[in-house]
Please model this.
Amino acid sequence: MLGDAIHAMPPMLGDGANSALYDAATLTSALVEGPDIVTAVARYEETMRARTYPLLVS
Ligand SMILES: Cc1cc2nc3c(=O)[nH]c(=O)nc-3n(C[C@H](O)[C@H](O)[C@H](O)COP(=O)(O)OP(=O)(O)OC[C@H]3O[C@@H](n4cnc5c(N)ncnc54)[C@H](O)[C@@H]3O)c2cc1C
Model:
């Protein structure tokens, strides 16, 4: 999952679209780097959470 489906941004934060695009790029890179889907998705989720959750609690 990515974008608002996993971290719905408050409209006034002004970072929802950026975050969704960044998620897509991060997931794509992880899948390209492999070595397998499970590892790639786990790495994507770790990166996405570290970047996005601070925005949601700020
Ligand atoms: C009023 C308002 C103002 C905002 N202002 C800003 C702003 O200034 N700057 C900013 O960065 N962000 C802003 N946001 C937030 C931003 O719009 C979202 O964070 C961003 O669009 C999330 O992108 P997304 O691709 O995750 O989801 P979405 O843009 O919601 O895209 C999801 C898509 O999936 C489709 N879909 C849903 N269910 C299904 C299904 N079952 N089958 C097929 N398709 C489906 C939907 O129709 C939709 O097209 C604002 C949001 C709101 C509500």
Q: What stands out?
A: The mean pLDDT is 93. The first helix runs from residue 4 to 7. Residues 2 and 23 are 6 Å apart (CA to CA). The pocket of flavin-adenine dinucleotide is lined by residues 3-5, 9, 11, 14-18, 20 (CB under 6 Å).
